Amino acid sequence: MEKLIITAAITGGEFVSKVHTKFVPCKTEEMVEEVCKCYKEGASVVHLHAKEPRSGLPHPKPNKVFPDYVKGIRESEASDIIINITTGGGRMADPKKLDLLMEERATFGQEISSLNMGSINIWEDMGNSAMRNFVFSNTMPTIERWVGYMHANNVKPELEVYDTGMINTTKKMVGEGSLKEPLHLQFVMFGGLSCMSPTLKTLMYCVENIPENWTWSVCAPGKTEMEMAAGSIILGGHVRVGFEDNIYLEKGVLAESNADLVAKVTRIAKELGRGVATTDEARGILGLNKT
Q1: Which residues sit opposite 187 in a β-bridge?
Q2: How much is the pLDDT for 95?
Q3: Residue 36 within any structural domain of the chain
Q4: Residue 78 needs a FRET pair 20 to 30 A away by CA distance; which of 29, 84, 224, 283 works?
């Protein structure tokens, strides 16, 4: 079994801010320090969202700050970590400016970018009935445009699969030639109102329905994060942990750093007899060229 790639999703998306945990990194220097901590504990990939530096809310102009994050990381002790930049915020953009945002987002020097493989209803209503009107929109033409910009800039898409039908979308795009194999998928097992549930049965279904030469990873929320991580480790997949998915080290105990969560999954992997990939080993597994 190949070694385990651990991704640290350190910043959180729209729903993680200073309101939820004071430990979420928001400023560029905090991002860099957090990446270094995670790297030392075994993370070979870091997944980034752009944060407003004081509140931790989504940055209103993410493309303005991503280059600073990348530069800071490349000049740090974690200089060779694989950087993964989100594309999720693109759906919020002015439609007239979307293509410019998309093209620019692929040019910051990252090796991977996440790419949502379809549209879904909001996964949680957060106790707010208005949220039920929200649609996480990513149409097929939009996905194809993202892929085109990524391929043009030697960025590998990490395909975010929120429900099992998105596996069929992925296969369709491979058949049409817009996605290049081998692929790397991430099963986003967030449950809630419209995402697939974080269960081993669901994970097994997903794994059985993709080609053997595709690599895959799992992320799951809250208390299910480590349960699904263990399942992925056993089945030969890879793992994402971090504040984007879970801010607790154990019940009622906030993690003081994403590195606490990386260290925990590293210990689980060790107990299960699976080695943790270095950055160079992760690049080999994912088919990336070393920066």
Answers
A1: 161, 218
A2: 58
A3: yes
A4: 224
Residue 155: HSE in the Cβ half-sphere, 13 Å Cα cutoff: 28
Count CB atoms within 10 A of the CB of residue 165.
Answer: 13
Query: For residue 134, what pLDDT is reported?
Result: 79
23 burial (CB, 10 Å; 0-12 / 13-18 / 19+) is middle
Q: Tell me the average pLDDT across 177-181.
A: 94
Cα separation of 120 and 122, whole Å?
A: 6
| Number of structural domains in the chain | 1
pLDDT (tens digit per residue) in 23-49: 999 999 999 999 999 999 999 999 999
Query: Nearest CA to 16 among 254, 185, 263?
Result: 254
Task: Report CA torsion sign: 61, 64, 68, 70.
Answer: positive
Is the pTM higher than 0.85?
yes
**DSSP code at position 51:** B
Q: What would the two tokens of residue 40 be?
A: 């030392």
Q: What is the 3-state secondary structure (H, E, C) of 82-124?
A: EEEECCHHHHHCCHHHHHHHHHHHCCCCCCEEEEECCCEECCC
- Residue 100 belongs to a domain with what CATH number? 3.20.20.70
Residue 270 lies in a domain: yes
Mean pLDDT value of segment 136-158: 93
| CB of 216 closer than 8 Å to CB of 210 | yes
CB contact set of 186 (below 8 Å; sequence gap of 6+): 114, 158, 159, 160, 161, 216, 217, 218, 219, 240
Within-domain flag for 1: no
pLDDT digits (tens, 9 = 90+) for 209-234: 999 999 999 999 999 999 999 999 99
Residue 291 covered by a domain: no
Which DSSP helix (H) or strand (E) runs through 239?
Answer: strand 238-241
Range of the domain at 88: 6-286
Tokens of 278: 């270095």
